[in-house]
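Input sequence (84 aa), recorded before submission:
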Amino acid sequence: MAIRIRENIILEKLDDQIVILNIDDGIFYELNTVGTAILEEIKKNRDYKDLLDSIVNNFGIQRSEAKKDLDDFLSNLEEMGILE
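Predicted structure, token format:
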């Protein structure tokens, strides 16, 4: 199942980063390069496995490390109210 961004979230790409605005609480978030790459994949309606494969292939890290980092990142996005 694809991971989805909530409807109340506005994304804006500035240079190589994405800025996120949660319109419910007015809070802005700025992502680094890896976070931006993951969010770009989420916008394409990718599922968890596709996201993990993308991180391993694009950043050349071990699958176990990529899985931990992805799990932490997705958990943070959920806590911030960005993901459904």
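Checked by second reader. The chain has a mean pLDDT of 92.
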